[in-house]
Amino acid sequence: MALKTAVLAAFLSVLNLCLPISAVIQESLLALPRVSYEFIIVGGGTAGCVLANRLSENPKWNVLVLEAGPSHENILNSQVPPYVFRLQNTSYDWNYTSTPQAALGGRPVALPRGHPLGGSSSINGMFYTRGSSSDYDRWATVTGDPGWSWRWTKPADNHDTMGQYDPRAHSKTGITSVSLPGFPDAIDTKVAEASEQLGGEFAWNTDTNNGDSLGIGWLQLTIGNGERSSSATSYLAPKYLNRKNLHVLVNSRVTKLVQTSPGNKPSGLESIRQVLPVQPKPACSFHAVRTVIARKEVILSAVALGTPQILMLSGIGDPTELRGLGIEPKINLPSVGKNLTDQPQVALTWALGINGHLRSVSDSSLLSPRRAADPTLPDKWLEEWKTNRTGPLTFNNVNSIAWTRLPDDSPIYERFSDPSSGRNTPQLEIGIVGTGYYPTPGRLILTSAVVATPHSQFDIYGVREAIRTSRRFFAGPTWEEYNITLQPPFDTDVDSELDAVIKATVFSASHPVGSASMSPKNAPWGVVDPDLKVKKTTGLRIVDASIMPFITCAHTQAPVYAIAERAADLIKESWK
Ligand SMILES: Cc1cc2nc3c(=O)[nH]c(=O)nc-3n(C[C@H](O)[C@H](O)[C@H](O)COP(=O)(O)OP(=O)(O)OC[C@H]3O[C@@H](n4cnc5c(N)ncnc54)[C@H](O)[C@@H]3O)c2cc1C
Ligand SMILES: *[C@@H]1O[C@H](CO)[C@@H](O)[C@H](O)[C@H]1NC(C)=O
Ligand SMILES: *[C@@H]1O[C@H](CO)[C@@H](O)[C@H](O)[C@H]1NC(C)=O
Ligand SMILES: *[C@@H]1O[C@H](CO)[C@@H](O)[C@H](O)[C@H]1NC(C)=O
Ligand SMILES: *[C@@H]1O[C@H](CO)[C@@H](O)[C@H](O)[C@H]1NC(C)=O
Ligand SMILES: *[C@@H]1O[C@H](CO)[C@@H](O)[C@H](O)[C@H]1NC(C)=O
């Protein structure tokens, strides 16, 4: 059965009391000029804004973006890079938590998701990491479409810092800004020195985004001019938003897809029933539900958690499961919502024994980076950031990153095969947060230990080994003068003790992918074909993190930007 789609959306409508937030981002359903559009993009997130921009390049195509959250404009905590952690559990976060995790003793884990325009790119950590070439080559192999291979994935970024990256791996014409950390930390030279001394797994890699990501190098960040560059600030910059054929509606949560009449006439308008709660706005809002029509395509870009939800609410999924939820099954696609993959991580604290005494661990906080004895400093830094976009608030406090593999003779391979896509692909990631001081170091270093290639039982072994890898790094001779000690609860090297601590503290790297995976065209599994069209439907594509058949050995925003850019090309090609 083929399903022609339109979108049934729950809108927050605005009465006269509420003014539009900007001339071009609409809060009001009443401001929408039309009922039908060539393309309707569900979710104005990382991928959604890219598509909005690229598809509206054609002035003949009216493009509508429906975003559940508010506008991204004027959110200081989103703009100032190190304020990122102030965004979780606010109205800019969907506040998801997982079900109780049996392997973690029944503990649920938090799954933050971006809720303003720009989606997760408006609240994420700004790490710009692509993964290895073989990650993309594996997508090409699994889907049978060579177009997904690394070779064809064009870079889409800008760089402004010279000498600390490989210019051959980057373009200068991209829309989103990518830059190197704009402010030094006292340990930067130590990190480089440790790499030189230790070599091997810690060998220096000038640019871990050039396809071969193994080694240690400077982190690249989606920051431009000292402030966050999100898909909303970049791809929906005013010059694009001013396009007459681009319509962006915020506070509009899509509830489901409905089938329209064969001619795609707006006949679904009366069949409006379902309203999901939309964030109330005092005194000036009410909920209204409308259907809008896509003449060409509906594109779901509601992230790996939202996209399968919308599909299931629309009757697309495993029929038995849908019936169990009281939803009438329409299209049998049992892979919807399956194979969700995320990377586990733990946070380690290291004390520096300089100046004779240690700063207490409870004193450490990513919320107040670079805190010093002078309590007026944070205000001064903000003043400097506001005036000049310079100083300690211009980056996310992570200057360097290490990508490593287990040794080839690791005993784990007796039980499991290598979950990575290839030998140039890291399995483990160590992110190094500076001490927050310059030129003399502060008294704490924070690191993250992440399994970049998660795979069921591999994970706990991987986290353990990532912790041990971090220990090896700080045992390097250059660190001796700092007398660095790993703080509780990770100050043990006993497997069983480490496992207990990992289970008690591990959290999500916030990289859920794979819940509406690509698969070869006639495969019995998967949700979308390699051209991202939803199987067994017409007029419906998925373009977001959910289509990855395997997670990249990386943070996931750069891969999502690449997916969205390629998707825009595919869509343009098919409507030529
Ligand atoms: C806290 C956090 C930190 C992260 N840190 C990093 C990092 O440092 N580096 C990195 O590379 N990656 C990071 N990530 C991951 C990365 O940001 C995501 O993988 C990527 O942005 C996902 O893009 P997307 O387009 O799939 O989804 P999103 O960007 O999340 O966009 C989905 C959009 O759809 C909207 N939406 C959802 N449901 C509906 C609906 N029913 N109706 C209308 N709209 C809807 C959402 O509000 C959102 O705007 C982080 C993520 C989080 C949450
Ligand atoms: C957000 O809330 C969840 C659930 O209550 C909690 O587990 C998590 O630690 C909170 N996150 C932050 C950054 O406060
Ligand atoms: C997330 O939780 C915060 C704190 O409880 C709340 O203010 C916010 O509205 C929630 N976000 C959404 C999208 O509902
Ligand atoms: C999960 O992904 C694998 C490929 O990695 C695939 O073989 C399997 O069929 C998928 N499962 C579902 C339910 O889609
Ligand atoms: C901004 O930069 C100018 C020129 O370098 C400098 O004089 C001024 O003090 C700076 N302002 C702040 C608030 O740092
Ligand atoms: C190093 O730190 C440890 C733990 O704080 C402390 O016991 C030890 O005395 C320190 N060593 C030196 C040489 O300062």
CATH class of the largest domain: Alpha Beta
What Rg do the Cα atoms give?
Answer: 24 Å
Q: CATH superfamily of the largest domain, called what? A: Glucose Oxidase, domain 3
Strand elements, count: 21
Give the helix tally: 12
What is the annotated CATH architecture of the largest domain?
A: 2-Layer Sandwich
Overall description:
- The chain has 576 residues and is of the alpha/beta class.
- It is 21% helix and 18% strand.
- It has helices spanning 46-55, 76-79, 133-143, 188-198, 231-235, 238-241, 303-313, 319-324, 377-388, 458-474, 495-505, 557-574; strands at residues 5-14, 25-26, 36-42, 63-66, 96-97, 110-111, 215-218, 223-224, 227-228, 246-249, 252-259, 285-300, 316-317, 331-332, 344-352, 398-404, 428-433, 444-451, 484-486, 507-508, 540-542.
- Strands 1, 2, 3, 4, 10, 11, 12 and 21 form an eight-stranded mixed sheet that branches.
- Strand 3, helix 1 and strand 4 (63-66) form a beta-alpha-beta unit.
- Helix 1 runs parallel beside helix 12 (557-574) and helix 10 (458-474) crosses helix 11.
- The radius of gyration is 24 Å and the shape is globular.
